[in-house]
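User: Okay, second chain of the day. Same drill as before: sequence in, structure tokens out.
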Amino acid sequence: EALVVDRTSGLVTLPASSWAQETPRPNLLVNGDWQINQRGFAGGALAAGVFGYDRWKAHTSGANLNRSGFDLTLTSGAIRQIVEPALWGVASFASTPLCLSVENLSGGSLDVTVGSASGTITAGSGRRFVALTPAAGDIGNLTVQLAPTSGGVTFRGIKLEVGATPSPWLARSQTQERQLCERYYWRLAVSWLVDCYQVSGGYSQQTLAFPTAMRAVPTVSYSVTGET
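Assistant: Same drill. Structure tokens below.
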């Protein structure tokens, strides 16, 4: 196809002309292809406020979702991600035009909320999007929420970017994406062995360096598998 006009948005693209393709803009969402899964979420039901795939958690009414390769099927409920302006070097996204897009949305429409702004992405092949502008009062962190209008939906490559139209999807490297996830949550991939001798009345201290600077002082949890 040489020329494509989206009947809903009026967006014109030239698929066969590489020089006419827009330069991809940064994705403000982390783990937009759901490939980072430190918690080992197997898919299925998520209770209210519980995280599944990294950076994605269930809405207050819960959610049911599954990933197959790069496709996500959201059967019911809603999922959320908190977008932190400071991560992208800005004070806020208030009054800033933003575009949220997904690839190959099928099964129905997708209701989208970004801060206090909301809209709907209709089903269809290719990149589907909705342009939203958070209100002047949407300062600080933004909550991005996705929910099927009815039934279940399947899509891939979710992207939130500055601007009123979508730019092409461009995945970050897995190393970069994992570091972005680890800013908020980090879990060792293997057990950590502490080998030491403790004298009576003394103590042993071990240092474990974090792989990246975290957003805030973390709450640490651990379990002891064996000691003598």
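The longest strand covers residues 71-83.

User: Thanks, on to the next one.
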